[in-house]
Amino acid sequence: MNRLFQHSVVVLFALLFAVSPLVLAWAAEQPDAAQREYERGVALLRKGDLAAASEATRKAIELSPSSADAHHLLGMIAFKERKPDQAVESFLHALKLKPAYPEALNDLAEVYRIQGKSAEAEQALKRVIEIDPKHADSYFDLARLYEQRRDVAAATRVYRSLLTVHPSHRGALYNLTL
Length: 178
Known about the structure:
mainly alpha; Serine Threonine Protein Phosphatase 5, Tetratricopeptide repeat; 0% strand
């Protein structure tokens, strides 16, 4: 009986030794497969095929659940599909994975703005500017948000701040002349 046990252990270790390179190779391929699905999702979104883009992006997330970029992309797709609650959920998930993610914050702010959640949009845009002081879109979007509130002084301050980091920003120059 003892001899049978020893033989079983030897066979088990031999089997594990033989299979482990296959497992490692499979695990190493997953990020590449996830990246391919993500890139496919981006391409399909650009073509306007939202259903296929969503499917590819969900597959990317399945292969790499910690991909903030894939969750962000899924939020963009949901936004295009006019599903703002799903977009917010995806953007927040991306930000949970990567808190300093200017693009996800900026897109989240846009959804909040459209939903009429001005305070949340303002907070998200200010956070982007903290993270990336040269993120022109966030300055511009924040100034436009202040304009919607009819807070001309705040909008002017933000446009001027934008011009300090991007002196030839056409939108800021144009809106300051109005």
